[in-house]
Design brief:
The chain is an alpha+beta fold. The protein is 25% helix and 45% strand.
Length: 484
């Protein structure tokens, strides 16, 4: 019998060996309504593909009859079945259909030989099939590149009724031939139907999955937005759910930040076709990558301002407001000069998603330098700046857009080479820079949007966006736009 100390050690070892599943930075859900829409489009594809099915010529003998069927084709007047895609446990879906109908047309030749009787004849045949059923399992997994994958398995198909109309002469022989035609049809068509259904899953659906952008370059290719799967999809009776990395890294040196996503709030909602959860971790990983790789630095000069505001960084501006009028000591010591603001973030920005609100806070320094007419660069002062911003979020063209609608700054002087400075003046100066440059620049980035993982011919419609704890939730229907 094990002694207590060994039981304690064994229990500790077993608990420490259990690896918890990673939390996603992005999560997606396709509901039963979404699968119903997939079913509708898959059925349209199936009906369009079946008449293109290649059916080889058939020949053989039966008793005293030698026969051949040629130019066998499925006619386009197909009666679409009643079909559905259902969710099941494990890793799959079931696509089933019942009561389809289709027609075949073919040419035939028959040779009949019995004793001294030899007859050869030919004609055409029309076959109507009814009560056609099929069922197939669709496995949903993930491929080596982190994309969802689809594969079909276990297709079964059956035919209910067969009605045959043979056109030609010699009715006695034609009646003998009907049984041969029905047997061949019941042998061939279920397999051809299963091939068509399997191709829709293994080729059509899988090719769409391969188009899914899971690693997307951002901001001049300096960053990578990673939507790769980190776990296999999960299934309930109401939806299937996928779990993605949802992380932004520095393209030249992709590495994860030293923090992890918080658990995404649970939700049982399935009224829309699809749901997307964007964790606070996703923009926070961008902030980490940007801060760690020196991206949050910018040298602001007069060339960065729109027409009419170019003189704001001048030290001399008779009759106008510029940095020289705000700081007379600068104008006196460096007349007819231009000031450069060297801005840098001193800490990683912090993004906050709270119910109904989206915000971010920044801390950084601004170093002021004067560029004199004779080419000298003179240090002026350094400001410490703490800024907080409120954002609104919206959706456009399957991209998440952002816009700043409120800012608040706190400014203090870290060092000065031009003597004491007025607190109100330095706050006014920084607020002016925020309004004229920083906020418009950030809004420009926000207007470009962050792409959500989708394919080109899927559009979001009737979308709703909600900010919940640590997460931004997109609830949407989708529309498939067929490419011609």
């Amino acid at each position: 019998m094990l002694q207590p100390k060994y039981l304690i050690f064994l229990s500790y070892y077993m608990l420490s060996s259990v690896q918890t599943a990673p939390e996603p930075g992005f999560q997606a859900r396709i509901t039963k309504r979404g699968l119903d829409y997939v079913n509708e489009n898959a059925l349209v594809t199936l009906v369009a593909e079946l008449p293109r099915t290649n059916i080889p010529d058939q020949s053989g003998s039966s008793g005293d009859i030698e026969y051949s069927l040629y130019e066998i084709r499925i006619l386009p007047d197909i009666r679409a079945p009643s079909s559905t895609i259902t969710l099941g446990p494990g890793n799959g879906l079931t696509w089933s259909a019942s009561n389809a109908g289709l027609s075949l047309h073919a040419g035939w030749r028959v040779k009949y030989k019995k004793g001294w009787v030899k007859i050869s004849t030919s004609g055409t045949v029309d076959v109507t099939l009814s009560g056609i059923n099929f069922g197939i399992t669709i496995n949903i997994g993930q491929d080596a590149n982190g994309r969802p994958s689809t594969s079909a398995a276990g297709c079964q198909s059956s035919i209910g009724g067969v009605s045959i109309s043979i056109h030609g002469e010699l009715s006695v022989i034609l009646n003998l031939f009907k049984g041969i035609v029905e047997k061949k049809v019941r042998e061939i068509i279920p397999g051809k139907l299963c091939n068509a259904v399997t191709n829709i899953v293994n080729i059509n659906a899988e090719s769409q999955m391969q188009k899914l952008k899971v690693v997307i370059p951002l901001l001049g290719n300096r960053f990578l937005l990673d939507y790769r799967l980190i776990l296999p999809p999960s299934f309930t009776s109401l939806y299937l759910q996928t779990y993605h990395k949802g992380e932004i890294t520095w393209a030249a040196n992709p590495s994860s930040p030293p923090f992890s996503p918080q658990p995404i709030p649970s939700s049982g909602d399935s009224s829309k076709m699809a749901y997307l959860w964007i964790s606070e971790y996703l923009p926070q990983s961008l902030a980490y990558a940007a801060q760690s790789n020196g991206f949050l630095r910018y040298n602001l000069t007069s060339q960065d301002f729109k027409s009419g505001n170019e003189s704001v960084l001048n030290t001399t501006c008779p009759g106008h407001i510029c940095i020289g009028t705000l700081f007379p000591a600068i104008a006196k010591k460096y007349p007819n000069s231009q000031v450069e603001l060297r801005m840098s973030s001193s800490e990683m920005p912090v993004v906050k998603m709270r119910p109904g609100s989206l915000g971010a806070s920044f801390m950084g320094n601004i170093d002021f330098y004067a560029h004199t007419p004779c080419g000298q660069i003179a240090y002026l002062l350094t400001l410490n700046v703490s800024a907080s911003m409120n954002f609104s979020a919206s959706l456009s063209n399957e991209k998440l857009m952002g816009k700043i609608f409120g800012t608040r700054t706190i400014v203090s002087v870290q060092a000065s080479a031009i003597g004491p400075l007025n607190d109100k003046v330095i706050n006014f100066m920084v607020d002016t820079m925020m309004d004229l440059f920083i906020v418009p620049k950030l809004n420009e980035v926000g207007s470009r949007g962050f792409p959500l993982p989708t394919v080109d011919n899927i559009k979001f419609v009737n979308s709703e966006l909600e900010i919940i704890q640590d997460t931004l939730l997109v609830a949407t229907d989708v529309q498939y736009i067929a490419r011609r």
